[in-house]
Amino acid sequence: MLPAERTEAPSLAGFSPANFAIVMATGVLGVDAYQQHYEGLGRVLLVVALLAWAAVAAMNVGRLARYRDRMLEDLRSHQRAPGFLTAVAGTSVLGSLWLLLGWNGEVGALLDAIAALLWVALTYGILIALTVQRDKPLLAAGISGSWLLLVVATQSIAVLTVLLAATAQQPVRLTLNFAALAMWLCGGMVYVWLISLIFYRYAFLRFEPGDLAPTYWINMGAMAISALAGALLVAHAPGAPFLSGLLPVLAGGSLLYWAVGTWWIPLLAGLAIWRYLHHRYPLHYDVGYWGAVFPLGMYSAATHQVSVALGLRFLAPVARGFFYVAAAAWLLTAFGLLRQLWQAGAAAVDGSR
């Protein structure tokens, strides 16, 4: 029988830093379920998200302990480094669902603090490491939709912080709302910088079916979570006087972000048809597909919140429709993950005989 480390090592060594996207996708689907009055399903998804968070965190700790050089190599990679930011967004989305379901607010505050610390360490650590590199890839090889995780991570903290502020007393509430507003504004500016490069890569550089990674759906998801954060700030403005003075900016910005996110959907859907139907690109499970599930769920959550905060009730059926689309995408992706795990386990058993 082979030693355990010989069967486990390859998967742990190559463990993707983007695996917290499983938590992101599961958590936001739980938020959708809560919004659509399926609270029982939301609770189940919270438990699944908690288990996934613990499992992925343990795998990352194990990888850091045994394959530190591989992890540092990923942190210096333009393609893989942004995936580490899924840890920030996954933790924040988990905390948001926790608070929405009315569970212990202290745990929500703890998750917010963990996410904020991860955001500071990873955002600036990754950007500094990539900036000071002497050898850098060409734009076509270095940029992808995963770079917009910088925006998603930032806005996810804005969402959790404004939800946490609603449970706090003054002057803590004022501080939290100000922090949420600052993160919302910063996230919007970072999106402008990054989407310019991504759009240039789309339109002016050679683009093959293999280049269209599922993470390009984050083009839309980053706008959706920005709209959600803005709409939550609008909804909580009555409890924060300085936010009330900014209501036109908050409402207009939220609607702008929602409209831009909506604009992306037909384009991304058309490119997916071009990739999978026209070019018959093979469809195999990859962690990147969670990066496509998350934007679909986030668009549902954002559309619901925009419809409530801005009084646009005619958008409610859109939010409900995308909830079912996101749920179907989650089930398919989860099936792919379980199938891969089953095959890996079977191969390990066969190899040990």
What does this structure look like?
The protein is an all-alpha fold. It has a single domain (4-352), classed as Voltage-dependent anion channel (Glycosyltransferase, Alpha/alpha barrel). The protein is built from 14 helices and no strands. It has helices spanning 4-13, 21-35, 39-66, 68-75, 86-100, 105-131, 139-142, 149-165, 172-204, 218-235, 241-244, 247-278, 290-309, 316-352. The longest helix is centred in the C-terminal third of the chain and has 37 residues, at 316-352. Mean pLDDT is 93; it is low at 1-10.
Name the helicity range: over 70%
Number of helices: 14
What's the total number of strands?
A: 0
CATH architecture: Alpha/alpha barrel
User: How many distinct folded domains?
Assistant: 1
Return the CATH topology.
Glycosyltransferase
Sheet bearing the most strands, described? none
Distance between the termini: 6 Å
CATH superfamily: Voltage-dependent anion channel
Q: Which of globular, elongated, flat, extended, rod-shaped describes the shape?
A: globular
Mean pLDDT comes to 93
**SS-derived structural category:** mainly alpha
Residues in β-strands, percent: under 5%
CATH domain class: Mainly Alpha
User: Could you give the order of the helices and strands?
Assistant: HHHHHHHHHHHHHH
Low-confidence stretches: 1-10
Return Rg in Å: 20 Å
Summary?
With 353 residues, the chain is mainly α. It is built from 14 helices and no strands.
Defining key terms:
353 residues, 14 helices, Glycosyltransferase, globular, disordered N terminus, mainly alpha
